[in-house]
Amino acid sequence: xxxxxxxxxxxxxxxxxxxxxxxxxxxxxxxxxxxxxxxxxxxxxxxxxxxxxxxxxxxxxxxxxxxxxxxxxxxxxxxxxxxxxxxxxxxxxxxxxxxxxxxxxxxxxxxxxxxxxxxxxxxxxxxxxxxxxxxxxxxxxxxxxxxxxxxxxxxxxxxxxxxxxxxxxxxxxxxxxxxxxxxxxxxxxxxxxxxxxxxxxxxxxxxxxxxxxxxxxxxxxxxxxxxxxxxxxxxxxxxxxxxxxx
Amino acid sequence: xxxxxxxxxxxxxxxxxxxxxxxxxxxxxxxxxxxxxxxxxxxxxxxxxxxxxxxxxxxxxxxxxxxxxxxxxxxxxxxxxxxxxxxxxxxxxxxxxxxxxxxxxxxxxxxxxxxxxxxxxxxxxxxxxxx
Lengths: 246, 131
Fold this sequence. Notes:
The complex is a heterodimer of chains A (246) and B (131). Chain A has nine helices and seven strands. By secondary structure, chain A is an alpha/beta fold. Chain A has one domain: Rossmann fold (3-Layer(aba) Sandwich), CATH 3.40.50. In chain A, helix 5 (88-103) links the parallel strand 2 and strand 3 (111-117). In chain A, helix 3 (61-68) runs parallel beside helix 5. The radius of gyration of chain A is 17 Å and the shape is globular. Chain B is of the alpha+beta class. In chain B, strands 1-2-3-4 form a four-stranded antiparallel β-sheet. The longest helix of chain B has 12 residues, at 87-98.
């Protein structure tokens, strides 16, 4: 078992605390089948260094895990890692999580670039991302919460601000898919020709229908379930779907 | 924020996505800090094909850094015969991996929107009327 990065510096009042979904991503990325897939998909050292982007990094535990264990997961340490989050507090905390986890590794170490504040992939140049990881706000809710502007972030009502930030991390609107759908719509543009995405879904997101929709995209896309929380824990049974050009 | 990161970012506005002027973003009033990092020769070598050299030259110039060679170095010049990193490799490592914009702005060449960088973290969130 690979170690889980430390998040003891992260304030879970305002930032999503690593939970079953986060750990499912760690287990899936480091599983024998995915490490074999990634190593053969990005053969080392003959191909350019892959760029890994995690969208909505939260505490940074997933990005830190992937960066610290790049050699095991990708079969190479010459991998670059980038993250985004709408929550300014999360972006700062996650950067610290990744830096800390990478620094504990022996050389050669992977390259942690930055975590930036941003909405999904909006600031990322098209066609550059080789591996995209997304643990979305997937819980079905009546409405999708609005992102916090600078004024709301500076509000003295810290408790209210923090609960809004946490809500952003889990509330997914209709079918829990409103944010995930926005991300999926941008995938063909954002991913490189060799790009692969890992997206977490819960049972209420209707993963089978999501996969069918992706397979119907023009130019031959594949979507397969490559990880599952296994136990039937009511409605929150989780799956990881791998999406790539066939 | 590392200079290497700028190789992968554009303006966050939808209307700028298809405009070539939205890449790269231009640093302004930038406070630079060099943060030492261990050199990973294979990483620099395998990142090189992904780096837009013209863009890197522009950014370096805008930041007032020493000017870069006209064309990208050859990765065959990265190691000495004794297997030690050459100055060419060290310089590129410093530029890409060690130079950080701690505070300042990033300006889009298309819409001229300014994104703030504070304490090393860039903010690409847009007010809702600009998305």
